[in-house]
Amino acid sequence: MLENYGNLASLAFNQSSKVIQQQNIQTKQKHYKCNTCGKVFSNSPNLSRHRKIHTGRKCFKCTACGKAFNQSSYLTEHQRIHAGEKPYKCTECGKTFIYCSRVTQHQRIHTGERPYKCTECGKAFNWHLSLTVHQRTHTGEKPYKCKECGKAFICCSHLTRHQRIHTGERPYKCTHCGKAFICCSPLTRHQRIHTGERLYKCTDCGKAFSRSSGLSQHQRIHTAGKSQKCKECGKGFHHSHHLTHHQRIHTAEKPYEIQKCRQVFNQTAKGKQCQRIHPRKHLI
């Protein structure tokens, strides 16, 4: 009986010692503290990398576009943009991504989850950074300012994109035709010309478009009808440029002139018809 009691006491002591030892390890693992923000790290290198956030030092530079980062892991992720590497895949639809965080964000499209809600207007977002940027539309805050022209922006990516207007930099290049772009999204839209991909589909008639703007224009046929009205005669049009052409009937404006015969037209299409009449050598 005493022997069993002794064994139990010994077992309890050993378990207690292991718990204390584990707690000591965990305590030792997090004793590197940032003096600026108080965040704690398990080792000195992690703390050193973190401190670069506060100092603004960006030692890791992309050789393709010159963009700099304060951590090598951020540079590695960024370089996938130029390499076209997208290692993270959505299990629902198969779409691939450069960053793991973007897969998580994307999957909320399928689940409908929007956990980040604006307290000002109630609008919800599937990513916390989207909420942060959105909230600046209420506060008017534009913390990112262009040193070249003084224009300010609500997020860093908008400033980076804008600065390329001054530098002429176009780091995003089409692998099919070589055309280059200031930012990634126009390249993505452009590449659909080569692939024939049409992601934006009309729920009323099934017609598909390569751009959301094309779908929006098309949907006016079903929803708003001919919303562009002529003030002179009341005739309606689906698109503003069609209305502009029509209004030249009332204003007698004829901005298109054929240099061979000096005829003028209110529409480019009519001018092109006239040009076909003249020999090709006379066309300017």
From TrEMBL:
Give the main location: nucleus
| Organism of this sequence | Bison bison bison (North American plains bison)
Q: What is this protein called?
A: Zinc finger protein 565-like
UniProt keyword terms in alphabetical order: DNA-binding, Metal-binding, Nucleus, Repeat, Transcription, Transcription regulation, Zinc, Zinc-finger
* Localisation per UniProt entry: Nucleus
InterPro entries xref list? Znf_C2H2_sf, Znf_C2H2_type
Q: Name one GO cellular component term.
A: PcG protein complex
What GO molecular functions are on record for this protein? DNA-binding transcription factor activity, RNA polymerase II-specific; RNA polymerase II cis-regulatory region sequence-specific DNA binding; zinc ion binding
| Domain C2H2-type residues, every copy | 32-59, 60-87, 88-115, 116-143, 144-171, 172-199, 200-227, 228-255
UniProt cross-references to Gene3D superfamilies, sorted A to Z: Classic Zinc Finger
What the record says about family reads: Belongs to the krueppel C2H2-type zinc-finger protein family.
